[in-house]
Amino acid sequence: MIRSYLEAVLTGNPNATPGTIGDAFSKAIQDFDKLLEDDLKAAIPENFESLSDEELQAAINDHATGGRVYTKVTRCMRGACSVITVIDPPKKNLWIVNLGDCEAGQYINRAGTSSKFTHMNSASTW
C-alpha cells in the first residue's frame, strides 16, 4: 500500500518535494489504519454496545462458521509493527516510516565517529 502511494506521487510529479513524499507516507499509514477500522466495524454487529458479554463473545468467537469476525478482531487487536526506510537517488533525503510498537534510529558515520539520530516525529514534519 505504501509503495502504491509513493508511486502515485512520483508518477504525477517526478520532482516531488521531500514534504510531498513524507505526506504520501503519512497518508498511506493513515489509510491503512482506517481500512482495518472499517473492516472491523463491518464485521461486528451494529448493536455490539448493547450486547451482553456472552453475546459479544459468541459474535466474536465465530470459529464454527468460518471465523470471519474473529479474524478481523484479532487483526486489529494484535497490532502491527513495521519500519520502512527510503532514501532518494541523490542521497539527499531519508524517510523513516514506523508503524506500531517500533522505533527507527539512524546512525551516521562522519569522519570515523557515529552519532545516533534521535529525532522522532511524523514523516510530514521532518
Q: How would you describe the overall organization of this protein?
A:
There is one protein chain. With 126 residues, this protein is an alpha+beta fold. It has a domain at 2-43 and 80-125. It is 44% helix and 19% strand. The protein contains four helices and four strands, in the order H-H-H-H-E-E-E-E. The chain has helices at 2-12, 18-43, 53-60, 68-78; strands at 81-87, 94-100, 106-110, 113-117. The strands form two sheets. A two-stranded antiparallel ribbon has the order 1-2. The radius of gyration is 20 Å and the shape is elongated. The chain starts with a helix and ends in a 9-residue tail after the last strand.
Point out poorly predicted stretches: 121-126
Arithmetic mean pLDDT: 79
SSE run: HHHHEEEE
Biggest beta sheet attributes? 2 strands, antiparallel
Assign a percent range to the helix content.
40-55%
Task: Work out the radius of gyration.
Answer: 20 Å
What gross morphology would you assign? elongated
Give the CA-CA distance, first to last residue. Answer: 21 Å
Record field, number of beta strands: 4
